[in-house]
Amino acid sequence: MEQQMTSANLPVSGISTDRKRKSAFQEFWRRFRKNKLAVAGLAVVVLYILMAIFADLFYSYDFITQNQISNAFAKPLTRAEVDDGNTTVQHLYILGADNFGRDILGRIIHGARVSMVIGFTTIAFACIVGSALGAIAGYYGGKIESVIMRGTDILLAIPNILFALAIVAALGPSFQNLLLAIGITSIPAFVRLMRASVLTVKNQEFVEAARALGARDFRIIVRHIMPNCMAPIIVQATLGIAQSILSATSLSFLGLGIQPPSPEWGNMLSDARSYISYAPHTLLFPGLAIMTVILAYNLIGDGLRDALDPKLKR
Amino acid sequence: MIRYIARRLLMIIPVLIGVTFIVFSLTYISPGDPARMILPQDATDADIAHMRHLMGLDESFLMQYVHFLFGFKSPSEDSSFSYKGLLALDLGRSYVSNRPVFKTILERFPNTALLSLFALVLSVLLSIPAGIISATHQYSPSDMVVSVLSLLGLSMPAFWLGMILIWIFSVKLRIFPSLANPNNLKSLVLPVITLATMNTAVQARMTRSSMLEIIRQDYIRTARAKGLDEKKVIRKHALNNALIPVVTVIGLQVGQLLVGAVLTETVFSYPGIGTIMVDAIQRKDTPQILASVVFVAIVFALVNLVVDIVYAFIDPRIKAQYEGMTKGK
Amino acid sequence: MDELLLSIRELTTQYITEDSVVHAVNGISLELKTGGSVGLVGESGAGKTTTAYSIMGLLPKLTGKITGGSIIFQGKDLTKIPEDEMRKIRGNQISMIFQDPMTSLNPILTVGDQIAEVLEIHGTATKEEAIAKAGDMLEMVGIPRERMHEYPHQFSGGMKQRVIIAIALACNPKLLIADEPTTALDVTIQAQVLRMIKELKAKLNTSLILISHNLGVVAQVCENVAIMYAGRIVEYGPLRQVFEAPMHPYTEGLLNSIPRIELDKTRLSPIRGMMPDPSVVPPGCIFRPRCPYAEQECAVRAPRITEKSGRNVMCLMHEGIIANKMRVDHA
Questions:
Q1: Which pTM was predicted?
Q2: Confidence check on the interface: ipTM exceeds 0.90, yes or no
């Protein structure tokens, strides 16, 4: 990620030395760091990623998917006996328990894993496919371009979650189909951005120079054009992750995404819906988890945009 | 102008064909076999094959798409297997209720439209003034408040916000009902707020950034150099220019409203097109789901058509571009 | 005729940002008589435009600040009067033409509306009169009045600049500030626009401050010229005298770096180096690092303005502190 940001700031002239690379990144980092909110967002995201990676150290997957009916709707900070297969042990429900007596904090932590995986894989997929299509459309123009761009227009004509919903409805709800649906609906934004960036970079002199030196198209696109288009793509990717997580939780909420008992923030809220008056804590915490992580990505996205936007350079 | 509208209308056709094609392809690749779903569990393979023939499912992919658009006449005596096609707003019947799918959609759509319209009006009334104040008082406390609130609005899942509002206003305070229906205006307050929040946030941010960009333009400096007072500079020179991109965003936001409506309607059990979709999904009623998706996509395309036409009225450059084009030809 | 219209005294303007203070204009003084004209010449970043914005009261609100000196216009100090009063002067008694005509007109208002607006603001005409007068103004700048209902994008760059000139002159201002009015235009159009500014100035008896990085442009229009460097006026005097016998090494450098047919020189001599960073002010003479005549004394002692044969110059060579090594002697 850092490597990418560095190249985004570099005027690619072919003589990018290490020193220059470092100072461009430092310049970017200096500006990014000034934005306190963006740094806070980054900290939150890092926290969630760590939570996702080390989820099993906090709570075992078996434990948070197993029903403990006797502890259903335990209030936050309740201490209760739980059955861990063979014996009963004392357990502190920090954020309380859900309708099946499962630990809410544990489910949120394991849910972070699901959400992070969805966010990263769908956007990585959309970013690679979308950028490649956008670069091809922008670089070659003509028929290829109109085919790609018309296709994009059509995808954009269907509101994104709705399209994802149609895909999942047709293919059946499963983790893979959810990834596919959100991945596909995230593509158009990258196609448009990449094409627009390529069009502005394409006719600049260093690209002409590379062409005059006999570089092949593929090489020109990958080495000279793409790095110059990275800034808007990185911003879009960050905001895209937020959008993707939001879409996934929405679909799960509707029962089209991750299926219970697998822990996912959206399906936790779907369960909580029936008990709003009875156990509001089952509603509150998963929602806060979604909100903080989306907010964090949005803050980072804003910060990146400001730090990478050459118009604001002084 | 009329020719511009006509041209724009023509441009929408390939988009609609594409959308219907995608949605149809999804039905086609969908693993469930509709013939098997209709027949009882113990049906023989021959029964199923016969049923597939009656339903037109044994024909080629393209032929089936043509049926999807222009209708299908079943060889069966039972007229419920025939339909007149998308162009006649007839895509057959629901697997569950056995009612024509579009009948249900057309009955419920006005409810969704009402909810979305209220939300749209509320979001425009809130977001545009907020965005303008925020931009013209950059870095002031009011800018901070608008920025923070719009970031929060942007990050809040609508379905969660709706449930929180129910918890506060229906459960705790008992001011508004938790179930909404179109005949009770009071019951619409919470769903409208829920639905409007995301749009308000997006539009306020858009208005702010658009306005910030416009007030740095050279022609704003020209207006100030004329001795115009700051309020008039904003109202007469900055606002109209800044609103041009905002109008586009509002158009695109209508799509978000329709999506948000699916979630909001679910939370408030509101009888709109969103609840049709969710019910259909839960019952695996594929014709109903796909008809709803196609319907919403078409509404969305038409709304954007209207936005583009409005656009041409407020921006003389677009009109001129088009006039220049026809003059050239 | 010979009365003083504008008198700038020790004007200092700074841009204050979070991490730095940019010293854009550092104590410049300048006088302009009614009907007179002065050219401000210098490289980009020399503080020419900042000077203009200071006079117009159009400095960026959050950062730009006049920190010292005065701008006396018709007896009023423009740095002291409230914004309301300044607004009545702006566009009415002092007008400005900007560098880039392509972006200086509002794209969604007709040019007629944009000219009429300035007349309405200053109450010189009713709406109908203003529209009629806008037509007159268009004709004055050589555009058929029927075109007043067209939008800016229907005009070429040169035509747009004429529209902007029409806006600037609509209220018959006492002072016109033209900031690089021809830089963004084609060479052939440049000459037309300059000639028009010159003619209208004479016709309306307007005083003119012409800002340009191009000595040639100033030479066509102005009586006097002020050479700016790093926020200071390093040399000021009648245009012909300054051109024929520059007193400041920087002026000499500028003159040597423009091609001149009559001088049969095959090589131009550019000024070496770059202007200093305006957020860091070194001691001594600011031009020293680039000056071919600099001596040790120049690094520690800042030159003051010296008046010599009716001209002003800011250089130790003319204070008699170091020897004058320039080719032309002014004694």
A1: 0.82
A2: no
